[in-house]
Write a structure and sequence with these properties.
The structure is a single chain. By secondary structure, the protein is an alpha/beta fold. The chain folds into 2 domains: about 210 residues, no CATH class; about 140 residues, Rossmann fold, CATH 3.40.50. The protein has 12 helices and 19 strands. Strands 5, 8, 9, 10, 11, 12, 13 and 16 form an 8-stranded mixed beta sheet that branches. A 7-stranded mixed beta sheet has the order 14-15-4-3-19-17-18, with helices on one face. Strands 1-2 form a two-stranded antiparallel ribbon. Strand 11, helix 7 and strand 12 form a beta-alpha-beta unit. The longest helix is centred in the first third of the chain and has 18 residues. The radius of gyration is 23 Å and the shape is globular. The protein binds beta-D-glucopyranose. Beta-D-glucopyranose (BGC) binds next to helix 10.
């Protein structure tokens, strides 16, 4: 018997099966490691976490980033920019700083947090049910919209009024949210109604932000702010893009696969995270935090502006402290099913997935990447017809309320 046959015979005796050359242990699907990422299981109306989904089994986690810390940074980045450029920013010189806001998904916690962060920093937020209202206002020519108020900024002894002139959820007719093309059209409509009253453009992400920048703001010299630090957005900073926030996708993509790796290895779940692993990978405490109660890992955000953009030019570079190859003997290959809810989402496809593809090699994971259409959950769940073939799952839902539709497939 040669070595391969011997290994297969032993595997058969131990109740292991072989899938595409990778041995998958006979573990019930409901007991396999599961990570939710980018879209935290939660109620899209109240934001309450879906704890049933987050504690599905003892190997279930969420990986995302600290949305409040990032949202606050984004708001402050915009305010700092206005203060630093007050001599030139008020394009029509009426003493009022007008901004428009592209909203990603009104039912997504990250989007809600960013809308709140901007309104808070600019003084335009109004309180609703104990928090800042995050509703889109449509248009607000005269400052009477009820979900916002006119804010004021004291700069060099002068008081400026700040008005949210317009905001809208950028959802296309088929239902895709965070839709860049919709934002690109939207800015045209806003520019024709508000003209040079628009002094600043803000977006919940870079996909929409860059679409507005390319369609209008760049030519009109209007600073535009996004979120995600996608490479194209960072490259646009010297051309007038105001700034963006890195949500440390390099750390998130790592954590997404790392928690699965650790759960599959059955050893220390913190290996290569808070504790150095056998290859020397370890994250520093200023790059992420873990909330045990929420079973959630959150990467920490960093503002990217004209001062530091050079350090962020390539958003697909792995994070140096966790870029060491794991030994294949100690961490044998495993099969992972992973979906991206929208194959054309700028952040997920141009930043997150390329990072995942680098880390899957480093962590000896064989990942099947399933790209969704961004609109229908069944387009994705239909492609999880054979969970038995995988050792673990990484899920990015279309809607944060829909965890149950995945869980029911694993329960069977
Ligand atoms: C990103 C967005 C992206 C969304 C998808 C957010 O964290 O900032 O750019 O569209 O995730 O769920």
């Amino acid at each position: 018997m040669n070595k391969k046959m011997f290994v297969m015979a032993v595997a058969a005796l131990m109740g292991l099966s072989t899938v595409a050359g990778v041995s998958a242990e006979e573990v019930a699907n409901k007991d396999k490691p599961l990570v939710w990422y980018n879209r935290q299981p939660s109620n899209s109306s109240t934001g309450d976490l879906d704890m049933d989904a987050l504690t599905y089994n003892d190997k279930t986690y969420y990986v995302g980033f600290d949305s409040n810390q990032g949202a606050e940074l984004q708001g402050i980045m915009v305010r700092d920019y206005i203060e630093a450029h007050i001599d030139t920013i008020d394009r029509n010189g009426d003493g009022m700083i007008g901004y428009v806001l592209a909203i990603g998904d009104i039912g997504h916690n990250d989007s809600i947090a960013r809308t709140r962060g901007v309104r808070k920093a600019l003084g335009t937020g109004v309180e609703k049910d104990g928090d800042i209202d995050s509703e889109p206002i449509g248009t607000n020519n005269d400052g009477t919209a009820s979900a916002v108020q006119d804010g004021t900024l004291e700069i060099n002894g002068t008081t400026y009024t700040v008005r949210e002139l317009a905001s809208q959820e950028m959802k296309n007719s088929a239902g895709a949210t965070w839709d860049a093309a919709t934002a690109g059209n939207g800015i045209g409509t806003w520019a024709s109604s508000f003209g040079d009253a628009i002094d600043v453009v803000v977006s919940n992400n870079d996909g929409m932000g860059m679409s507005m920048f390319n369609a209008w703001s760049k030519d009109n010299n209007v600073p535009t702010f996004g979120y995600d630090a996608n490479s194209d957005a960072v490259a646009a900073i010297p051309e007038g893009y105001g700034g963006t926030i890195s949500q440390h996708a390099d750390v998130q993509a790592y954590l997404t696969l790392r928690v699965l790796r650790n759960a599959l290895d059955g050893g220390d779940i913190d290996a290569g995270i808070g504790t150095a692993d056998d290859a020397g990978n370890v994250l520093s405490p200023d790059s992420y935090l873990y909330n045990e109660e929420e079973r959630s890992y959150y990467a920490l955000n960093v503002a990217v502006t004209s001062e530091n953009y050079q350090d962020f030019m390539d958003s697909t570079v792995t994070y140096a402290p966790v870029s060491n190859q794991l030994d294949e003997g100690a961490h044998p290959a495993k099969k992972i099913w992973l979906n991206i809810y929208n194959a054309s989402d700028n952040f997920l496809s141009s930043t997150y997935q390329p990072l995942l593809q680098k880390y899957d090699d480093l962590l000896n994971l064989e990942v099947d990447y399933i790209g969704g259409d961004g609109q229908t959950e069944s387009n994705i769940t239909n492609r999880l017809g054979n969970p038995d073939q995988y050792d673990a799952f990484a899920i990015n839902m279309v809607k944060t309320d829909n965890a149950a539709s995945y869980i029911s497939l694993l329960d069977q």
